[in-house]
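Hi R.,

As promised, here are both runs. First protein below:
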Amino acid sequence: MNKVHRQFRDIFARYFLLVAASIPNLWIFYFVFTPLTIYPVFYILGIFFDTILIKDVVIINNQVPIELIRSCIAGSAYYLLLVLNLSIPNIKLGKRVKMILISFAALLLINIARIVILSFVFLESFTIFVAAHQFVWYFMSTVFVVAVWFSEVKFFKIKEIPFYSDFKFLRKHSFLKR
């Protein structure tokens, strides 16, 4: 099999994985990252408060519920990182797996820290919490994903551009090209 056919196969496999990972409704991300988020948050808050965990709700001091809904888990942010990672061509499988695992771990740690900090803010002042939560939700969540991705690009010395590099290759080798 020549290099061009391998690249076509690689592109198909990467984008097939992206579509498969999104079905149904990013289920795999929530299945994996819900417990990986909830239990550390519960244990960290348990260092400072009496905590009880009931499903996805951490109850602090027997009176304050912190419900970790799907948006708190940030499944779509993990999916965006997967999209960015899989839309880069010419990366060996081992390096790609390492890149994905490191980016997911970084985002997981940031997300756990975000939830714990916002929990402390919630306990201090509901008014401040609402403003802080909105700011983090609408602005900082994007900043977190972009920071993880740019850090990954720098650390792994990625030279290709997501999607564009694949598009250039496909255009160059298209039978529709004149």
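And here is the second one, sequence first, then its structure tokens:
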Amino acid sequence: MKYYVHESSYVDFGAIIGDNTKIWHFCHIMSKAKIGENCNIGQNVFVADDVSVGNNCKIQNNVSLYTGVIIEDNVFIGPSVVFTNIRNPRSFINRKDEYMKTIIKVGSTIGANSTIVCGVSIGEYSFIGAGSVVTKTIPPYSFVYGNPAKIEGKISKDLMEKGTTGDS
């Protein structure tokens, strides 16, 4: 085992965890989950079956990644981000066969306390502002925020690395 798991966390047999990944306090990684190399999984994170997390990802505290979520490489997920996997959940109707895919593309950032409704894709290197509610697919290099989240500018990979947007 070439990854770290805090003693208070559970990694179910069969889960695939990449080298140099750190899984902190009170996490649960289910048996069919896949987490890449060099990831940092914060406190109280849940990763369901059939979730895929790429390499070099940072998942901050209190995030649940439900079945259908696919996170590509170099993605940042802020604290308490919410993902869904059913558009119209009801406690008395079993809809596990209706789980929808949600894809977070390479290099994207999702700010704290955002909600990502299932069935969308967040384009490459997009930046989702804190507290946003994403209800539609976001094109690559978009800077979005609000409820519902709207495109407020474009962002380039280079400028994003310096912490500034590329909108004019």
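A quick note on the second one: The chain has a mean pLDDT of 94. Let me know what you think.

Best,
J.
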